[in-house]
Amino acid sequence: MRGFGDLETVIMHRVWDHPSPVTVRELFDELRRERAIAYTTVMSTMDNLHRKGWLDRVKEGKAYRYAATASREEYSARLMREALAGGGNTEAVLNHFVAQMDGDDSEVLRSVVRRLAAEPAEPGESR
Amino acid sequence: MIAALLVFAYGVAVAWWLPTLLTPLTRSGAGARLGMIAWLTAMASALVSVGVALALLIRSAVTGWSRLAEVVCREVSGGACTPVVYRSALYELGLGLAALLATLTAITLTWRYGRRLQQARRRTRAHAEAARITGRHLPADTSGMVVLDASQLAAYCVPGRPGTIVVTSGALAILEPAQLGAVLAHERAHLAGRHHLLVALTRGLAAVFPAVPLFTRGPVEVARLAEMRADDAAALRAGRRPLIEALLAMGTGAAVPVPVAALAAAGYAVAARVQRLLEPPHRASRTRHALALICVLLVLPVVSALVFALASSS
After folding, report:
1. pLDDT digits (tens, 9 = 90+) for B284-302
2. In this structure, are strands A63-68 and B145-148 parallel, antiparallel, or unpaired?
3. CB of B113 less than 8 A from some CB of A
4. Structural domain for B199, as ranges
5. Radius of gyration (Cα) for chain B, nearest Å?
6. The model's pTM
7. Best exposed site among B72, B107, B156, B233 by fewest CB in 10 Å?
8. Does the beta carbon of A124 lie under 8 angstroms from any beta carbon of chain B?
9. Overall domain count for chain B
10. What distance in Å separates residue A107's CA from the closest CA in chain B?
11. pLDDT (tens digit, 9 = 90+) per residue, B15-38?
């Protein structure tokens, strides 16, 4: 299952790196140079990604041409929006390292850091 | 009827009064795990009390109806319908309605709670998958970390099999290797401790009971204590100093070498965490808080059991 998920990642990153839509055959030829992989595996993975809404496809002759539904940057931005919105009851359960702070909070922290930085560092403590 | 009211009143007392007792005891984050257990126990006992009260109400409504039927049968076969029968019928009718309403409310709330949990779970899964597909995996990394290209400073973990730790490229740029190690240790502690489960379960309760102090305060405190648990684990694994530096860097958005010195800015979440790491609570106050919490943990079930026993025998 883990490996399968990894393959989705690899294929999406390949599709994003391509300037134009790609066929399964083209991606398979690329991937085959780097790892032992079956054509049908690539095909079913791309079909999955299409079903899950990551890839769009257009029929061209007997094959499909696949393109990403959104750019990598758009997905990153979408994830950040969801991650930083936080706190809703039906939202994704994420544990942040540092909770989102409002302006006042980070100003307090910044002033603390300024004060600490102004004090002489203990021997061996400064980098 | 009296029994149901008694147990219900007990549940209400726990839900309204216990937060004022628990908040100061768990504030310092000394014995974070014990504090989490205390909050969860309090929430569980309030819920169980309401459940028992409901069961008692239904029981008295059912026995009331059968008694009423018996009385009516006797009176009607005797050929007379006295005011006593009317009064009794009115009372039993009211009781039956109350039991019905309470049952419907309980079913609605439970359903709503379940739906919220389900939605949160679905979104969490979708987020984890999207992060895994969109993010970059550093070649040398073995921690399952995923790097998202974003200027914002963020590091978080998404539960699942396997759990995913997401760090933005913005955060990666300002964190030194040792500090990144502390961040990852903190997030791994969240995943290992299944903190997301506690957060999801308690946050759902807050949504279902928006005006009950125990259920609005509880999730906040449980989440805060979970952060402190993860801090403790990270300090142990990666060192206190890199962790403090990482907290300050991520909190202020600047990479700063900070001398380990007193930090007096409590009241703010991150500042409070840094303060706690710099100056751990004294052993005496730690012990005092732990003892008080253990008392709460021992007393609560005993009192609950006594109330339930008293109620069901009355």
Report:
1. 777 877 888 888 888 887 8
2. unpaired
3. no
4. 2-313
5. 26
6. 0.82
7. B107
8. no
9. 1
10. 8
11. 999 899 888 888 777 778 888 999
